[in-house]
Amino acid sequence: MGKFMGFYKIFEFLGNLASSEIKKYKLDFKNYMLTYIPMYKKDEKQRGFNQSKILAETISKNLNLRIFEGLKKTKQTKLQSTLNFEERFKNIENAFECICEAPKNILLVDDVITTGATSFECAKILKEKGAKKIILLTIAK
After folding, report:
1. Domain that holds residue 77
2. For position 1, what pLDDT does the model report?
3. What are phi and psi of 40, to 5 degrees?
4. d(CA 24, CA 109)
5. Closest to 92 in 3D by CA, of 122, 51, 65
6. What is the mean pLDDT of residues 110-137?
7. pLDDT tens digit string along 77-118?
8. What mean pLDDT do residues 13-28 have?
9. How far apart are CA 37 and CA 28, in angstroms?
10. What CA–CA distance (Å, rounded) separates 132 from 57?
11. 13-20 — which CB contacts under 8 Å span 24+ positions?
């Protein structure tokens, strides 16, 4: 993990902060599972970590929630931050799949939301596989 360890620790810190806020407001997610925005395997290997996964793992430990690992990114896409509003939705279309039945209630963790294109696409895929309630949890907008 070397040079990215500092970034890893930042996302752990943010996950702890998010957990504290959820606890403070006494939000009850006991019937929910966590999932996160997956990265394309090659991209995650190159970076060394998935920041949304770190957030989800930290929140999972703090709130005693299980993580659903069935959401996968199946194709490499352009970096969303380099695209305009319309291009972001087109870029991410059909880039994800859910490889098994999804839990009914999901907390979807995304590190940053700008247009919502990635989160909406993942939510659509999860709903197609049986999710009924999806709550998006993000650290920055």
Report:
1. 2-140
2. 45
3. -65, 135
4. 19
5. 122
6. 96
7. 998 989 999 999 999 999 999 999 999 999 999 998 999 999
8. 88
9. 22
10. 22
11. 14/55, 14/58, 14/111, 14/139, 15/54, 15/55, 15/56, 15/57, 15/58, 15/59, 15/62, 16/58, 16/62, 18/55, 18/58, 18/59, 18/137, 18/139, 19/58, 19/59, 19/62, 19/63, 20/62
The domain tally of the chain equals 1
Q: What does the pLDDT look like over 39-81, one tens digit per residue?
A: 999 999 888 889 999 999 999 999 999 999 999 999 999 989 8
pLDDT over threshold 70, residue 5: no
Q: Would you state the structure tokens that stand for residue 63, as one six-digit string? A: 């709130």
Q: Could you give the 3-state DSSP secondary structure of residue 137?
A: strand
- State the CATH number of the domain containing residue 79: 3.40.50
DSSP 4-60: GHHHHHHHHHHHHHHHHHHHHTT---TT-EEEE----HHHHHHHS--HHHHHHHHHH
